[in-house]
Amino acid sequence: MSLWTASDAAAATQGQAVGDWHITGISIDTRTIQPGDLFVALKDSRDGHDFVAQALEKGAAAAMVSRIPEGVSPDAPLLIVSDVLPALEALGRAGRQRMAGKVIAITGSVGKTSTKEMARIALAGQGQIHAAEASYNNHWGVPLTLARMPQDTDFAIIEIGMSNPGEIAPLSRLARPHVAMITTVAAAHLEAFESLDGIAREKGAIFQGLEPVGTAVLPEELPVTPILRDCADAAGAVVLGFGQHGMARLVHAKPEGEALTCRARITGETVDFTLNTTGTHFAVNAVGVLAALSAAGADLQQAARGIADWQPPKGRGAVEDLGDIRLIDDAFNANPTSLSAGLATLAALPGNRRVAILGDMLELGPQEAQMHRDVATDPAMAAIDLVHSAGPRMRHLHEALPKDKRGLWTETAAELAAQVRELLTAGDIVLVKGSKSSKVSAVVDALRKSVQTPTP
């Protein structure tokens, strides 16, 4: 099925189409390009124009360029535009304009991608669903997701992220959501903002792109919830709070093996659902997801049944057995809020010993040393037996821990990974968590390589 014809793409971007082509997908990476794709020659660390010839050789139906690259014939199938990134934005804007379904946008300091996946899976069977791939949530990821959206999409889930002030509002205006959800506000990217209040205002900017009489789904129990409500009110949104209280509230989440059996009340309706995780923070986000889907016109009870098929993504809290130990792989990202949630998950699971292996939390600003020290007094720490850590920031936690919980500290995660198997014993349950740039995922890789899972 055609996604864009040459004439439609040219009209959307005010560009010039060379040839009469049509595309079935859009790619920005020749390593994953598929026959029929439009290759978009973005400029980042490398200039995409250098890869146009390769993309066409691999079967790309056309390439979006701002000039004819060296080695590419002038009569090759091209879409010539004045500037590639603004043209991609224009194509995304046109993709959103021609779609008559409902758009749900999701942002938050923690849990954007897992929440987006929850929403996508919960909507199964309720029409044509389109969602962002991976963590495509920035200035090129959002327009790319919109440009890839089929015209007959019934529900689209758009993830919107930020690392600096002023990034969310333009992306939300591009997506024009009917429902916008904030998962939470936490000390992530704090070094780019003056305070947590500043992060809250930036997250609340997602409501600026809402369609008229759109719905703002926001967390109820945060210190910055009033700021989020102010942002929603300023946008003229219908406000739907979720959490332990509010119009969408989690009534209970009971552990059943490696799952949670949950009940929620959402705008007066009782829903029961099961989650394939023991992390109660996921259950709270699931309530927000169900509230958002219901506000977008989805069948609430069907979505509650569908959410049972969701699995925590790799590196974001999935539990797996590795021989004689159990691993909670949460090594993709970390800030004080998500680390606290990870420790609570570890504390709730049975094991011979509960062991945390932690890498640095990054981008926390001038209070980063104290934020690392404060982890020692996290309520879940009472149930955790041992903490190994890596990185200069985690040294502050290492020194703040009681001696009986103080494991090994190393300067780098690679040093810890090299000896991690010696630090664990049979029956341990292990949480591995840290910011992506701390490279604590090397510990997860080392565990998987060193432990032979018994065959049934």
Automatic annotation (TrEMBL):
<keyword id="KW-0963">Cytoplasm</keyword>
<dbReference type="Pfam" id="PF01225">
    <property type="entry name" value="Mur_ligase"/>
</dbReference>
<feature type="binding site">
    <location>
        <begin position="108"/>
        <end position="114"/>
    </location>
    <ligand>
        <name>ATP</name>
    </ligand>
</feature>
<dbReference type="InterPro" id="IPR036565">
    <property type="entry name" value="Mur-like_cat_sf"/>
</dbReference>
<feature type="domain" description="Mur ligase C-terminal">
    <location>
        <begin position="323"/>
        <end position="435"/>
    </location>
</feature>
<comment type="function">
    <text>Involved in cell wall formation. Catalyzes the final step in the synthesis of UDP-N-acetylmuramoyl-pentapeptide, the precursor of murein.</text>
</comment>
<keyword id="KW-0131">Cell cycle</keyword>
<comment type="similarity">
    <text>Belongs to the MurCDEF family. MurF subfamily.</text>
</comment>
<keyword id="KW-0067">ATP-binding</keyword>
<feature type="domain" description="Mur ligase N-terminal catalytic">
    <location>
        <begin position="22"/>
        <end position="69"/>
    </location>
</feature>
<dbReference type="InterPro" id="IPR036615">
    <property type="entry name" value="Mur_ligase_C_dom_sf"/>
</dbReference>
<keyword id="KW-0573">Peptidoglycan synthesis</keyword>
<dbReference type="InterPro" id="IPR004101">
    <property type="entry name" value="Mur_ligase_C"/>
</dbReference>
<keyword id="KW-0547">Nucleotide-binding</keyword>
<dbReference type="InterPro" id="IPR013221">
    <property type="entry name" value="Mur_ligase_cen"/>
</dbReference>
<dbReference type="Pfam" id="PF02875">
    <property type="entry name" value="Mur_ligase_C"/>
</dbReference>
<dbReference type="InterPro" id="IPR005863">
    <property type="entry name" value="UDP-N-AcMur_synth"/>
</dbReference>
<keyword id="KW-0436">Ligase</keyword>
<dbReference type="Pfam" id="PF08245">
    <property type="entry name" value="Mur_ligase_M"/>
</dbReference>
<feature type="domain" description="Mur ligase central">
    <location>
        <begin position="106"/>
        <end position="292"/>
    </location>
</feature>
<protein>
    <recommendedName>
        <fullName>UDP-N-acetylmuramoyl-tripeptide--D-alanyl-D-alanine ligase</fullName>
        <ecNumber>6.3.2.10</ecNumber>
    </recommendedName>
</protein>
<dbReference type="InterPro" id="IPR051046">
    <property type="entry name" value="MurCDEF_CellWall_CoF430Synth"/>
</dbReference>
<keyword id="KW-0132">Cell division</keyword>
<dbReference type="GO" id="GO:0016874">
    <property type="term" value="F:ligase activity"/>
</dbReference>
<dbReference type="InterPro" id="IPR000713">
    <property type="entry name" value="Mur_ligase_N"/>
</dbReference>
<comment type="pathway">
    <text>Cell wall biogenesis; peptidoglycan biosynthesis.</text>
</comment>
<dbReference type="InterPro" id="IPR035911">
    <property type="entry name" value="MurE/MurF_N"/>
</dbReference>
<keyword id="KW-0961">Cell wall biogenesis/degradation</keyword>
<keyword id="KW-0133">Cell shape</keyword>
